[in-house]
Amino acid sequence: MTGTGLRIAVAVEARKAVASRVMASTTALLVLGVGVLALGMLLAAASGDEQVLAKLGPLAGVPGWAGLVGVVLQITAAAGVLAFGVALSWMFGREFADGTVSALFGLPVSRAAIAIGKLTVYLAWSVTVAVALTAVVAIVGVAMGYGTTDAAGVWALARIPVLVVLSALIAVPAAWVATVGRGLLPGIAATVGIIVVAQVSALADVGVWVPFVAPALWAIAPGSVPVAALLTVPSVPLAFGALCALAWSRLQLDR
Amino acid sequence: MSTAPRFEARGVARAFRGGAGVHGIDLDVAAGEIHALVGLNGAGKTTLMRLLLGMLRPDAGSVRVHGVDVDRADAATWARVGQLVEHPLAYAELTGRANLEVAARLHGLDRARAAAAVDRAIDEFDLGRYAGVRASRLSLGNRQRVGLAGALLHDPDAIVLDEPTNGLDPAGVIVLREALLRRAAAGAGVLVSSHHLDEVARVADRITVVNDGRVIGSLDPGGFDLERAFFALVHDDDEARRAAA
Q1: Is residue B186 within 8 Å of B33, Cβ to Cβ?
Q2: A-to-B residue pairs, Cβ atoms closer than 8 angstroms
Q3: Which end of chain A is more exposed for a tag (fewer CB within 10 A), N or C?
Q4: Stretch A195-209: mean pLDDT, rounded?
């Protein structure tokens, strides 16, 4: 794999991602969906809705930015992984579903470079989503009056982009599964599996050192997750990114 | 330009469950020739093309591209190859022009050369009306034209096209025929599969007949009644195998 090949692969994948309605609608659904859901839950909690208060658990009584960010993180820990996993499954699985994978053979740009190009564009996109979601939540908070009532608490917003990017990192196995399974659905199934493992473990308060679990646990109870545990999360995209590059490089159109 | 065979297969075999695949094929695609593969559905034409392009690894035998083992071919070798096997490079979300630009970059052209090559390809394949239209809105035939233009825009000298007239209208068939004849005259070696014996007779220098994963003979492109000659070869081969079984 050459540097030139990788540069071309990133440029080509970026062009496809920017033009794609799947990526645009996933971004809009996640950013606006989480914003609207958080606002709705806060308003319902303020009006004393018992079901919502039960869902929020210990967050129910937390005022200001910390309460808002806590709600957003709880939703994002599941919805973010789902959105990222679906996007990745599409980026990789669509080449098989659309048949375009056969056109990616016999090129000076290696297929490993194309796989890494896809993951690079995906990670850049996740950073954009992180910034957009943080901006939307900031707007919601200001609309709720936290700008004046809880000016000092605004730093809690910084947790949002961290969790969004961590959620993107733990979804990377979906790319490998979509490649090995030759389509979108296996990738989406893998994503659901990651969410179930992360959420069930986080609720049971186990697995703080498991990279798939640490972000969800950190979203619910930041105090219980050491920074070092979060630093294990990049091992997931590194390992599965390498598996993806290998799978693409060894790919055969035998199915 | 080198006169080494553009593609060489020696005893190449790849079997699938159920007995399909190719079972020991020798094939050359020489510089400057259009070599046609004909055979019934399931005869092994696409499998052979996939083996030549590294889309499948052989169980036995060897495949060379520009004299280099297909497994070891580097970027410079692949930059001289153009192929369309089964699905065109036509991403639904990109316009005709954007798809060609993507193809040009993936074939190793830098930005400046890519822009000029795309303009030439739009002209050659008469895609002007569709350059600004997303591929998702193009007809099957026009997507195929975009795919063919993308496979040939870097002027490759080793070309593999599987059923390239799929979906093309009569005007598209002529555009493709001229594109292939022009490239072969400039030294490219072209391997093309087709079910249309009349069309094959118009462009091919050599016609190889494949049946049940083996080469069973050849047809004379200038010969009389190719269809009868083709079926006679296939029928004799089927009979011989049945008798041997």
Answers
A1: no
A2: 85
A3: C
A4: 87
